[in-house]
Amino acid sequence: MGVVTTTLDTAVNWARTGAMWPLLFGLACCAIEMMATQASDYDLSRFGMELNRASPRQSDLIIVAGRVTRKMAPVVRQLYDQMASPKWVIAMGDCASCGGVYNNYAVVQGVDEIIPVDVYIAGCPPRPEQLIHGILTLHEKIKGDSLRNAVYVKELA
Amino acid sequence: MAVSHVEGTSVGAVAQESTWEGNVEELRGLVSDRALTGETMLLNMGPHHPSTHGVLRLLLELDGEQIVTCLPDVGFLHTGIEKNIEAKTYEKGVTLTDRMDYLSPMSNNMVFCLAIEKLVDLDVPARAQVIRVICLELSRISSHLVWLGTHALDLGAMSVFLYAFREREMILNMFEMLSGQRLMGSYFRPGGVWRDLTPDFLPTLEKFLDYFPAKIDDYESLLTNNPLWIDRTQGIGVVEPEDALAWGMSGPSLRGSGVNWDIRKAMPYSGYEQYDFHVPLGEHGDVYDRFFIRILELRESVKIIRQAIQKLPGGPFRSQNRKFVPPPRAELGQSMEAVIHHFKLWTEGFSAPDAEVYVSVESPRGEIGCYLHGTGGNKPRRVHFKTPSYMHIGALPVMTKDHFIADLVAIIGSVDIVLGDCDR
Amino acid sequence: MDIPKALNPVEALKNALPDAVADVVEFRDETTIVVDPTKIRSVMQFLRDTSGLIYNFLSDISAVDYWDQSYNYDINKRFGVSYHIYSMLYNRRLRVKVYLPEEAPTVESVTSIWPAANWLEREIIDMMGVKFVGHPDPRRVLMPEDWEGYPHRRDYPLGYETIQFSFNVEEIIKHKPLAKE
Question: Which ipTM was obtained for this model?
Fold first, then answer.
């Protein structure tokens, strides 16, 4: 009988990266590439992410796929607030990262003005490989996290 | 995915004990008076909802499960594309049009390029026209595949989505061969296309055309005669032809009601009059007819592409009019004039007369029109896109009246809305 | 079925409503009839219902703003509203255009003739600030309810923000309203 020893942090982070459920939330063109990532060719379920939750209460990750407009901004913020901690944000595509080609009255110049972003993915729209790379980058980030540093733990204390 | 799973960002509200911050009185005249007294229920659906195909918000007045009124609220994706194009030269504007109807970017490119070509009276060589037809029909197939996958997914058929996206990837790979981008290629330019077909494009295309029709049979074997599918779609969302015309519907949604109007046939552009194809028509105007027409259009598109490959002529792929189209790279080292044209076009752009034109093309969703007004300078005064999704969402109240809320999802799916197309 | 002979829309309109037609423009095979804004409803009713014309499909209504940075424009013709109508029977298009003044641009709504005009006119109300008299639902459609101004007017700024590069990133981050948890 082999014995496995590990730290609590490693075990928790392994669990978190192994089954990270994204919110079923698409805005614009990038959402089509997000769908392509989940479909047959790129198969996001390899990373335990095939289950798109339609409710923010049940999801860990919000992929902001597309341009966030001034009218949509309060909605995005409310969705983020409704998600349970720990939660992560990926800004997918140029528009969500910095406004992209739409430097105008209607578009928020980067979703980081509304919600804190963990990973930015460049591209207009990013290829599915880029999205997968962004998700793996997020996994790396989570693996480096410690329970002690988590925001919600501080809030509870 | 549960169909009746309504996940709103502002909660549904009953009139008396409302957590909704707005005032019900504001809706007087828009909803029936029964909603103001609390007899019927007001329910908010969207803007974040799995089956509204984007960020559409619907305010529903429900009597039990029956829809009394449906008030669509759009604009959550209003990007200011029209205003942005006014600040750019004509050729740069093409890049922005891609992102309106993001399921068939080529149709948007096409209508904007056609408008520019009409405004400045620019010729398009025969080869470019045929390449454009191939691309338009490929993007029609890819758009219909996304529609098929998501529409079936909304009504509970998961596997069609996976199959449809499998075939779509092949088309996207071909677009990538042409333009270097999977979705937003901006491949059409005023006066032609960006570059010639790559050598491996046509063999790949022919392989795809041999492969694809069998796959349409697969989709049909999953859906067309499936009793569950028929129960959910037949007799639902019936639109009479008079209503469809009055509400400005177009494309497969109009033809589902039996009105024979396809802009490819009625006002041919890019040489569509030379192709032999059939425009499928519906009889009942219900969800099933709109579904079946699109399936038949997939087959017609394959037919058109086969003919296009047959008649693909040689020659230039862009107009030789150097006042509007930049010279090829090879010419720049040899001709001073070419350098001047190149410099002028990439810094200032070309000028268009102070006049207005309106052109429309048949996109996978319907009539997409472009109203272009020049200033006499290098930037347009006004660009306005008439988009089919906008008209179809405007007609949703008529289509959904007295239907059950579960059928609403089927109706939204059947008119194939794209919110980027609607809000621009 | 007998199809009545197609009429020339310009001549037919000039005969029926002589004081409505202000101008006729031909450009690239497109006919534009400029009409008096107060008569737009009767003109549209005539074009839709007269046998030989039957423009039964409203394709688009688009508005254009002739405002100019150098104020070199006609104050009484600042806005143009173009109705693109289409006849399925005769397979031809026609553009009917009205010019509206800068002060209180107002035109009659054609919603009662084509319900499709409902949303197309709402977009213009929202984006250009043109008033449509008799419109059943004149709320904003694309912009938020509390938005100020009409974004597609030419004097409305595009809303440009400085683009972030590596040389100015610190300056921009200082002012950027970044979100907190």
Answer: 0.88
Digit-coded pLDDT (tens) for C130-168:
989 888 888 888 888 888 889 888 888 887 777 778 888
**Residue A9 within any structural domain of the chain:** no
Residue C170: what are its φ and ψ, rounded to 5°?
Answer: -65, -40
C9-175: which CATH topology? Beta Polymerase; domain 2 (3.30.460)
- Whole-prediction pTM value? 0.89
Residues of chain A with pLDDT under 70: 1, 149-157
Given this structure, which CATH class describes domain B81-318+353-386? Answer: mainly alpha
Select from B9, B75, B83 the Cβ nearest to the Cβ of A104: B83
Does C76 touch chain A if contact means CB atoms closer than 8 Å?
no
The rounded percent of chain C whose pLDDT value lies above 90 is: 13
How many Å lie between the alpha carbon of B404 and the closest alpha carbon of chain C? 24
- Residue-wise pLDDT for C52-71, tens only, equals 888 889 999 999 998 888 88
Structure tokens, C176: 């950027």
Number of compact structural domains in chain A? 1
The alpha carbon of C136 is separated from its chain's Cα centroid by a whole number of angstroms, namely: 17
Residue spans of the domains in chain C: they are 9-175
- What tokens does B100 get? 């309106």
CATH fold of B1-76+389-424, please?
Answer: Enolase-like; domain 1 (3.30.390)
Nearest to C131 by CA among C165, C160, C154, C106: C106
